[in-house]
Model the fold of this input.
Amino acid sequence: MSSDLPPTSSPTVPPGASSGTPSAQPPNQPPNQPAGPALNPAERLLNLVIALVNTNAAMTKQQVRTAVAGYSDAPSDEAFERMFERDKDMLRALGIPVVTVGTGGHTDELGYRIDQDAYALPSIDLTPAELGVLSLAAQFWQDKTLQTDITRAMVKLRAAGAGDPSADALAGLAPSVRAVGDAYGPLMEAIEARRVVTFSYRAAYNGAVLTRHVEPWRIAARDGGWYLMCFDRDRQAPRVFRMSRIESRVRVIGPANAYDVPEFDTDAMLGGGPHGEMRQAVVAVRPERASALRARAKAVPDGERTAYDARLARTTRSGAGSGAGEPAGWDILQVPYRSLTGMASEAAGYGAALVVLEPESVREETVRRLTAAAALGTRNVRAEVSRG
Amino acid sequence: MAERADDRLLRLLGIVAYLDGAGPVSVADLAGRFGTTPAQIQKDVDALWVSGTPGYWPDDLIDFDAASIDRGVVHLTEARGMTRPLRLGTREAVALVAALRAMKATDAVQADPARSAVVESALRKLTDATGEAASAVDVRLAPGGDKQVVAAISSALTNRHRLRIRYVTSSDVVSEREVDPVRLHTQDEFAYLAAWCYRAQAPRTFRVDRILEATETDVPVQAHPGQEPEIDFGALFAGGSSPLATIRFAPRARWFAEEVPVESVRNLPDGDFEVTLRVTNPGWLRSTLIRLAPLVRSVSPEILADDVAGAATAALALYGDGDGAGDGAGHGAGGVRDAATSADQH
Done:
């Protein structure tokens, strides 16, 4: 198997002796000379990849150390070990797995090689427009680490050929998602390797900070927030954590393959998305007001208008004398909604420009908000309220 | 300035694999393809030239045609077997696939069959090459708002036509404007249209879900030199010299501190927290505090607290006959009007 190993006296390129001129074909040099500056890490890695791809069977560590350009720079056994392990990790991270095989010799020494079929990109024939779409993904992420991932993917895809990207297909579109934050790296590592993570988390219901141990399943962005979906080992139940409330670094702990990720629906687990049936509220709105709400509302049918006018007159009676307006000064609209609290919150936000007529549940929720808001004032205002 | 070793290695391997299929390519084209400078490509070629299999005799090395290099053309003559482009790593596939899936679902892409077709096919080829999997990240971007509005914006962007829009600000003020659309930023929470606004005679950002109507005109967009509208999300909320307000919230309102740009957040021992922010848009702040009122412990300065309470009291007066707490409410504080709006933004 050592057929591709040079005798130790074979000529070696002086490490780092690259030169820009065509005549700089490597001169014959005495072997293993630490001539010139140390080979830079990218070039050492390149030589390692070429060696491990071209080796007939495998190379032992010792063979790597003596034969592959750059490794003889290691000043000690330990330094070499560290260098080699780090390089293997880096290659794995780039999608170039170094496989370990027995050398089949009398020793139990391990051999290393790279299987090109394992790392090769299947043929992928991208049109310029499709490449343009992929390029847009580079701006999609705000996090440096994700931008790096996209840049690497693009280098690989550009190496596979194809023409130049064309941005025409999605001209003027700029989709993006807010930054995930530092937790992304460890969480992806944990999800990929099925390892447990730990972090401290501020609970929303009481503000307390507790240490959590979870099995991460997926991270998701919805409505301006990032969420971690996982199995909570402390609670022994599936849980969703809002990532902005993670107060510590996320640390990956424990062994790989510690759990399975079940199949599940993101929105079902978040309890968000289109849940609850669509219902109709009826509201009275001042002319020219609440335009954002009007955009999804429609006028009540003519036949029902009278009844709602009467309802409006009843509810505003106490305020009528204060210039709150007669029914003629209002538009009566039907507004679709799914979330009771969402509808009430929106209604309350319009203040006196809008009155909820039905259903009673939305009225009550709206009044609850208004009452709490009215109580925020200083004594003068409260006195005015109680006088009324 | 120093490039990471792994990034450079990727490019070195990428150059060899690409040249093996492409034949001679100019240094400039290589630089463009791999997103670097011609000088760096020269250095990369120099490094490749002395790399190869152990032994490192001339026949062991990656080789180029020397005469071509002199003409600024890189012509690979020996690849030492490094001809296969690298497959995508898991993280890379996850980042690409999640972005494309999110894009595909946006209204702006859905509104145009040609656009959705190209995103769809890019996604399909990508997942064919990387394998399924990539479900570790799931992003859904904001719905763009009214479908017809999004379709009109989308079409105007493609055709480079001026748009006529009806827009309502967060302070509930409606206006009609003509704008030259520049870019549609779809984000996870909201979609924004960056445009040149003729009414303001300046670049403006419009939240798409607040565009009530949009009509594409047949007037071509004009150049507005030096006034390229870019969304500055800091500026959307930036306060400058606006007055400060301090609000104490119950823990459940924590999203407020997370989603609204604030000057500072202070966590209190009992789990409450206190935010300080600039009041750039009093109408929006009043409305938001009413909506959140059950979770608001206190508001200062007093004038802001009274403004919120006054608006709520006036509204309560309209709930006269229910079980609601509004029965006792009398004349609200009078000043319930949109005192100010922070113009067209947000």
